[in-house]
Amino acid sequence: MTSINNFNSAIDRIKSLECPTGEVENRVAQILEDYNVAKKNEVNINRDEKLDRVGAQAFVASFSNNPNQSLVVLAKSGLDDYVATVVDAYIMS
Predict the structure, then answer these.
(1) Which own/partner contact pairs does 27-35 have at CB distance under 8 Å and 24+ positions apart?
(2) Average confidence score pLDDT of the chain
(3) Are 81 and 88 contacting, i.e. CB atoms less than 8 angstroms apart?
(4) What percent of the chain has pLDDT over 90?
(5) From CA 38, how far away is CA 65, in angstroms rounded?
(6) Closest-CA residue to 60 (of 52, 72, 75, 43)
(7) Parent domain of 67
(8) What number of other Cβ atoms are within 10 A of residue 74's Cβ?
(9) 3-state secondary structure string, 54-91?
(10) For 5-14, 40-49, 75-84, which range has the lowest pLDDT when averaged over its residues?
(11) CATH label of the domain that carries residue 59
(12) What is the pLDDT of residues 18-39, one digit of tens each?
């Protein structure tokens, strides 16, 4: 089990993420592994249109090592649709 401090640090890092549009899921999974929240093979990240906000696409990360908790990441695509910028990330229990 990961500490809440690691999870919060990973969320802070994810909130500052900018990357190519198609790499959001992979980058989020890598950050979660880097902060010892979960190994990449324990993270499943999917788009969830129900959680979208105006102009931002929602991604939900679920964890096989902690099925009662998930992470929502909201990202906006830039004008050229090449760069995605995370605008929010939060724990959903």
Answers:
(1) 28/59, 28/61, 28/71, 28/73, 29/61, 32/61, 32/71, 34/10, 35/2, 35/6, 35/7, 35/9, 35/10
(2) 92
(3) no
(4) 78
(5) 7
(6) 72
(7) 4-92
(8) 19
(9) CCEEEEEEEECCCCCCEEEEEEEECCCCCEEEEEEEEE
(10) 75-84
(11) 3.30.200
(12) 999 899 999 999 999 999 999 9
**Strand 57-63's sheet: what is its strand order?**
18-20, 83-92, 70-77, 57-63, 43-47
Question: What's the domain count of the chain?
Answer: 1
Contact in structure between 11 and 90 (CB atoms under 8 Å): yes
pLDDT at 2 over 70: no
Give the containing element (helix H, strand E) for 18. strand 18-20
82 token code pair = 């090449």
